[in-house]
Amino acid sequence: MKPEPQIHDDESWIAQFTSIYTKASTKFSDGIRGADSLFTNEDSTFLKSIGATNQEIYDFIEDWIEAGEPDPESVLGVTAIRRDYFFREQAGIHSETTISMKDLPSMGATLGGYRWLPRIIVKAQAKLKGEMPSALMYGCGGDRPFLKGIGIKLDEFLQVVRQAKDNTQEILDYVKLRSSGPTAS
């Protein structure tokens, strides 16, 4: 019998995550590059304990400093959803699977007339499960304009995908509800 995961809903993890994120952002601003260079061993151990990786937090920091998004609050929201999924759905056990870049829907793939939607759904599902390859980012420079165009926040979309599970029609219905029309081009 597996032990019950310890979720630690006391929110003390937020202060530690915020401290790690802030210190790593400062290092990045000071010219330090590389996912493993921004984090101490202790930081890496903590990130792993909440279902996060050095690479994904590095990618968020890099885009924040260089492009002004996603903001730290969005990163915290995404991390909180992934953390909760990690404890509640995965019982604190890391997936041994990583999705393949070649299996991602193309950047031009459409669903319900929305270009990019099939791709971001697969990315969100992989993000939830901790199955992102290091070369892929949920919330990248392609995801953000798509979500902004339909009026959905990064963490909100991740939560919608979580609740819908594999029901892409439910996700599409939510996108249609929030959007003013298809973004296919």
Give a written overview of the molecule.
The chain is an all-alpha fold and 185 residues long. It has two domains: 83 residues; 91 residues, no CATH class. It is built from eight helices and two strands; from the N terminus they run ααααββαααα. The chain has a two-stranded antiparallel ribbon. Strand 1 and strand 2 form a beta hairpin. Helix 1 packs across helix 3, helix 4 runs parallel beside helix 7 and helix 5 packs across helix 7. It is globular and about 45 Å long. The chain starts with 11 loop residues before the first helix and ends in a 7-residue tail after the last helix.
Please give a handful of descriptors for the protein shown:
185 residues, mainly alpha, 2 strands, 55% helix, globular, disordered N terminus
Quick description:
It contains 8 helices and 2 strands. The chain has 185 residues and is mostly helical.
Write the layout of secondary structure elements.
Elements: H1 12-29, H2 41-49, H3 54-67, H4 72-88, E1 110-111, E2 114-115, H5 117-129, H6 143-150, H7 154-164, H8 168-178
Antiparallel strand pairs: 1-2
Beta-strand residue percentage: under 5%
Shape: globular
Helical percentage:
40-55%
The count of domains is 2
Q: Spans with pLDDT under 50 lasting ≥5 residues?
A: 1-8
Structural category is mainly alpha
The major sheet is characterized as: 2 strands, antiparallel
Total strand count, please? 2
Order of helices and strands: HHHHEEHHHH
Quote the average pLDDT. 93
* Distance, first to last CA: 51 Å
Side by side, the strands of the main sheet go 1-2
Number of helices: 8
Specify Rg, calculated over alpha carbons: 16 Å
